[in-house]
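Crash report, auto-generated. Payload:
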Amino acid sequence: MQRSLEALPLTNSMLSEFELINKYFDWGAGIGDDCALIDVGVHQQFVTTVDTLIEGVHFPVDTSPVDIAYKALAVNLSDLAAMGATPNYFTLALTLPNIDEQWLEDFSSSLKALATEYNIKLIGGDTTKGMLSITINATGTIQGVALMRSGAKVGDGIFVSNTLGDAALAWQQIQNQKIPSRNLLTQFNHPEPQVKLGQVLLGVASSCIDISDGLEQDLSHILSHSKVGASIDLDALPLSNEVAQYIANTGDWCVALAGGDDYELCFTVPESQLDTIQSIEKKLGVVLTKIGVIVESGLEIKGLDKTCQSYQHF
Amino acid sequence: MQRSLEALPLTNSMLSEFELINKYFDWGAGIGDDCALIDVGVHQQFVTTVDTLIEGVHFPVDTSPVDIAYKALAVNLSDLAAMGATPNYFTLALTLPNIDEQWLEDFSSSLKALATEYNIKLIGGDTTKGMLSITINATGTIQGVALMRSGAKVGDGIFVSNTLGDAALAWQQIQNQKIPSRNLLTQFNHPEPQVKLGQVLLGVASSCIDISDGLEQDLSHILSHSKVGASIDLDALPLSNEVAQYIANTGDWCVALAGGDDYELCFTVPESQLDTIQSIEKKLGVVLTKIGVIVESGLEIKGLDKTCQSYQHF
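Recovered output after restart:
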């Protein structure tokens, strides 16, 4: 996902990122999920995903190298999580305006700490000179059948992990020269990739996606890939105190529905597996909230009296 | 490799790219060859490589999207070639200042044509908004034992494919507002990755590298990884008519020794395999020239009376 801090020239905004990819880069090799599947054997699949973060676009200028490195890898781990993959290795393409050893030291330490935590190895890279930008390509393996966007069935419950809108509210406050609370900043700079959750959802969830572009937009990918609709209950959305207070004051539900940058998982669960969800909550210490159900068609958000403008990459 | 068209601030140029990678990103997982090795089974290895091209740094502003796409993939194919890999799949991270459909159409068509030619599949990607930049992560498989930088032995012959310095001379002419010849421009914009050559060198060459950073610098990687030296015969270097004429006029051998952007292979061959080289030349229609031999230590370039400044990424 991406936000513009700088007013870059935008001569033609008719294409969204999804349209762009569909139009120019879907050559029939299976583009469309958070990760690409690579068959490597009878009982094993590799998945791979790539994300670029650009200074002034995906993170504010002067963000600490610790936070940049963390987020650059975490957003890729989040994509692996959405497929239920076990992280395996990644490559790093790093574009730097200059060599600042302290910056590199901090960046490297932070990246290594997160990589170690999730047992993912850095196996290659490229460094170039230019505006600060980080591209990570992360690859994982799937034990079983990968979580896809395409498996949701009518009647399945729709769940999200933890809370919605914290990172988006933090970003809004930063843009307005306010200092976000510690909780909001943590969600913005150090989103926890739901890798373990994704893994235990293998064989349990019927579809899954990470909601880095915002719940409404990412859920709609599940709906289009699964050829179903959804009915969402606004009052059921899990919110932190800060976001609940903000919405109470402003009526702006869009921060939770379309804010993006949440890196939580949205997934669907058949009736028969609902009991499993409770045991997963206890086992992982993660909050999983049912926010609606899969229906025949459309996307109804009960209680919402306006539409949100979802995040657009261009 | 990289060249600076723009005068970007360079506050600390003490670290070369190699030092930077060694210092901050070599975490013991095998960084150091053109590609990273990934063990996936008993008789198969994956190799993966990543390269970023930035407008104004790696290609001139206003380079055609056809040429940009070609080169972005070709430089990665060249890295796969240097390991003897068979191209398998790649991901694309594309940063664009705006959406220009004609540009994308041309870029996509060119990328697809080259991908089809080398039977490599685009399996994922990311698009972001910012200064034009392309990062490709390409992965291939190895049939046998990969070509490494570390296998050169004293007495081995040192070979390069085709001619040296054509792309560097083209670049120099472009910077001086001259229009390069068709041959030089082709070598600059459409370097042919030596994928087939790399594959047939498996089991034949004792070490191999692509010379995208220039012969002198890239050969020195073979020497340090193999803990040997080399004696190169200046008169043996294979040159196109244009480069030979340029050197005759200027005495500037550095265009061939350190120009970079050649995307040819430099490899070493044991005495026992020298006959095989001739049959490879005939089979592939590629010119392979012996330019020297591996010795105990040092890098002697017979006939050169000055040192060249090799390409530095920072």
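Post-recovery validation: The radius of gyration of chain B is 19 Å.
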